[in-house]
Design goal:
Blueprint (H helix, E strand, L loop, with lengths): L12 H9 L8 H6 L4 E4 L1 H7 L5 E4 L3 H6 L6 E2 L5 H13 L2 H21 L11 E4 L5 H13 L3 E4 L2 H15 L6 E6 L5 H10 L4 E2 L1 H5 L16 H13 L7 E4 L4 E2 L2 E2 L2 H8 L3 E5 L2 H11 L1 H5 L1 H9 L2 H4 L1 H13 L2 H23 L4 E6 L5 H15 L1
Parallel strand pairs: 1-5, 2-3, 2-4, 4-5, 6-8, 6-11, 7-8, 11-12
Antiparallel strand pairs: 9-10
Helix pairs in contact: 5-6, 6-7, 8-11, 9-19, 13-18, 15-17, 17-18
């Protein structure tokens, strides 16, 4: 168990770690190796998911743009057509001649495959076993797999390609239900909820970090370096985390609104969150302001964006208060600014929301301070309440 927004344990672990270092890997499954065709086979996504299918590398041969939008967890990108090449071939296919487009596409795929063979795949041994997929398990993945098979590698193609994976994500997150009991970690702005998720995850508590998956802190000031992923990739990160939860134990999720930045929490998870009991953390305004001034240092350093976000509050706060907050930001008085934002904007907004939607509270946790010692004490209380 542990923090699972981007899972680092269980069958996907090697694939996720490899994605970060450029090689995707999953442990070999004896049953898959027993029943596999010696050189090539198509495999359904269900079969792949059931035992990780014994593949050493998951290769997405779609274009970089398609891969960036979303991909199977742990996959690496070896495009056989660039974004520009794919657009060119598609235009020729639709507007000129499908046969000519296939010839041009085949030449490009062969040339790009040769480049991968001479670079990323040059040191792969004969026993290496890849799984290849494209958009729907068709021409691009089939062409790439045919060349790898001719070399002698035991290559498989994901039947239905990326679309088969995406169908499963949609079925689980839009049409299904979350089987693991959800408990929300709630509290006013600045009560260190994300930091507490990290601490209890390190102690073995199941958590799902939605802000981590969204790369956003969930407020007007919530941007993070690198920007947000697209909706599909956000959902993939959530789906991946859910795969490794033990339904016999609850999962702790930070209380969020239905949108985190520009991203929508998928319906099945949102329904579970709406019905979930809560643990509510409280702390004095001064302690919360000190915590935020430290936790949001990256935002403080981007003074132009900070001032822009303050300005966006003018319809709710009026010119005089916005002028005061801008002056505090420009003077670097971040604790005072944070206290003002919470006292006059965030705390009242959350109080109104809670008054409209009363939900069961399973525990109230009070902290006088939010330094490391105070957070460790809170983490122990959360762990005890979940036991």
């Amino acid at each position: 168990m542990g923090k699972l927004a981007i899972n680092e344990s269980g069958p996907w672990a090697e694939g996720v770690a490899a994605e970060r270092r450029g090689v995707a890997s999953c442990g070999a499954s004896p049953s898959a190796r027993r029943h596999a065709n010696p050189l090539s086979m198509k495999i359904s996504f269900d079969s792949f998911l059931s035992d990780t299918a014994g593949f050493d590398t998951i290769i997405d041969v779609r274009s970089p743009g398609e891969f960036a939008e979303d991909h199977v967890p742990g996959a690496i990108n070896m495009p056989v057509l660039s974004d520009e090449e794919r657009a060119r071939v598609g235009t020729i296919y639709k507007q000129v001649d499908p046969f000519k487009a296939r010839k041009i596409g085949a030449a490009l795929v062969a040339r790009n495959t040769a480049r991968w063979l001479e670079t990323a795949l040059i040191d792969m041994e004969g026993g290496w076993r890849p799984l290849v997929y494209c958009w729907r398990g068709g021409q691009r993945s089939g062409s790439f797999a045919t060349i790898l098979k001719a070399i002698g590698w035991r290559v498989s193609v994901l039947d239905g390609g990326y679309k088969s994976y995406r169908r499963r994500v949609v079925a689980d997150l839009y049409d299904g239900r979350i089987e693991t009991p959800v408990i929300l970690l709630d509290g006013d702005t600045g009560t260190a909820k994300t930091a507490l998720l990290d601490l209890v995850a390190a102690r073995g508590v199941q958590t799902l970090d939605l802000e981590g998956a969204a790369n956003h802190r969930g407020s007007l000031f919530g941007w993070r370096a690198g920007g947000q992923p697209g909706q599909k990739l956000f959902e993939s990160r959530i789906w991946q985390g859910l795969q490794h939860l033990d339904p016999a134990h609850p999962v702790l999720v930070e209380a969020e609104s239905a949108k985190i930045g520009q991203l929508q929490v998928p319906p099945a998870l949102w329904a579970a969150m709406e019905a979930a009991p809560r643990m509510v953390v409280s702390a004095p305004l001064e302690a919360r302001a000190a915590f935020l001034a430290d936790a949001y240092r990256d935002i403080v350093e981007d003074r132009v964006r900070l001032l822009d976000r303050i300005e966006a509050l003018k319809p709710f706060q009026g010119t005089a208060r916005i002028t005061e907050w801008r002056a505090l930001a420009e003077a670097g008085e971040m604790e005072t600014l944070a206290a003002g934002l919470m006292a006059h904007h965030y705390d009242p907004a959350y109080a109104r929301e809670r008054s409209r939607h009363e939900r069961p509270v399973m525990a109230r946790l009070e902290a006088s301070r939010l330094d490391q010692g105070g957070l460790e004490t809170l983490a122990s209380e959360i762990e005890a309440a979940l036991a």
